[in-house]
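Box 3.1 A note on notation
Throughout this textbook, protein chains are presented in two layers. The first layer is the amino acid sequence; the second is a token string describing backbone geometry. Keep the layers aligned when reading.
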Amino acid sequence: QVQLIESGGGLAQAGGSLRLSCVASGRTFSLFTMGWFRQAPGKEREFVAAIAWRSGSFDVADPVKGRFTISRDSSGHTVYLQMNSLKPEDTAVYYCAAVTSVRLVTVTRLSDYDYWGQGTQVTVSS
């Protein structure tokens, strides 16, 4: 069992920055991949970024490439999403997700993740 608690969402102006945090608890020894997804009103949940827990290798979606950075603190069982140069189209509920088994994973696919956080709202004004 893994619990994911997100924080850091809020209101930002276009061009501003926010940093989201996701703290994992429970069976943290089973963490292998951590990802961030977002869902805007009326839209499907979409991939934002992911990181391999042990190696630190990462993948970032094209719409946020060059603006968002994913990182992790393995000691603190925390994954971060640093969001810079925010745009109004970044407005969404952002979700943290975790893969907890060793298997071939497509990081952009929602169904490949085992656990999800509650989501945190990010609103970017023009």
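The chain has no helices and eleven strands. The chain has a mean pLDDT of 94.
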